[in-house]
Amino acid sequence: MKKFLTFVLVLMLACLFLDKIGGSDMHMQFNGDDFDGPLESLFGLVFAGGGLLIALIALVCAAVVAGVVVASVGLFMVAGIVIGGGALVLVLLACSAPVLLPLLVIAAMIWLLSNRSRKQARARRAGL
After folding, report:
1. What mean pLDDT do residues 89-109 have?
2. How many angstroms separate the CA atoms of 10 and 113, rounded?
3. Which contacts qualify for 45-49: CB closer than 8 Å, 24 or more apart?
4. What is the H or E stretch that residue 35 is in?
5. Contact indicator for 24, 45 with CB cutoff of 8 Å
6. In this model, does residue 92 exceed pLDDT 70?
7. Residues facing residue 34 across a β-bridge
8. Using CB atoms within 10 A as the burial measure, which of 20, 26, 34, 104 is most buried?
9. pLDDT higher for 4 or 22?
10. β-sheet bridge partners, residue 28
């Protein structure tokens, strides 16, 4: 599938390139000189490709900066909750205790069963 996709992409780019070189009624001026025909098309492709490359680099840089900013804001929010929001966390836990009660019961049962099996294993080792 990858080879087929690569082939289709190269074929599409070749068709676009041949269409661009094939001829058009457009004229380009570069430093006061008038270019037309295949040379004009080649210049257009090169300059458009350069613009797309610059746009790609700018988008990658913007994504990296946005990721760093979002990560740092998240770290500051967590630090603020840990440092200054201790009382707030306790209030929120107290308010959500009825909702978390079924989960707490299951966690307590698992803790008791695992604790009991550890005590029995210690007693067996001590008896041997």
Report:
1. 71
2. 64
3. 45/17, 45/20
4. strand 33-35
5. no
6. no
7. 29
8. 20
9. 4
10. 35
The pLDDT, as a whole number, for residue 60 is 93
Number of Cβ within 10 Å of residue 67's Cβ equals: 10
Convert the pLDDT of each residue in 13-70 to its tens digit: 887 777 766 655 666 676 777 766 666 667 777 777 788 888 899 999 999 999 888 8
Q: What is the predicted pLDDT for the residue at 120?
A: 77
Cα(124)–Cα(36) distance, rounded to whole angstroms? 95
Helix (H, G, I), strand (E, B) or coil at 29: strand
Q: Tell me the β-bridge partners of 33.
A: 30
Helices (H) and strands (E) in the chain, counts: 3, 2
Q: Name the residue type at position 18.
A: L
Residue 116 tokens read as 């009991």
Residues 11-37: b if buried by 16+ CB within 10 A, e if exposed: eeeeeeeeebeeeeeeeeeeeeeebee
Q: Which two tokens stand for residue 37?
A: 């025909």
User: Cα–Cα distance between 62 and 55 in angstroms, integer?
Assistant: 10
Long-range contacts of 73-76 (CB under 8 A, 24+ apart): none
Predicted TM-score (pTM) of this structure: 0.36
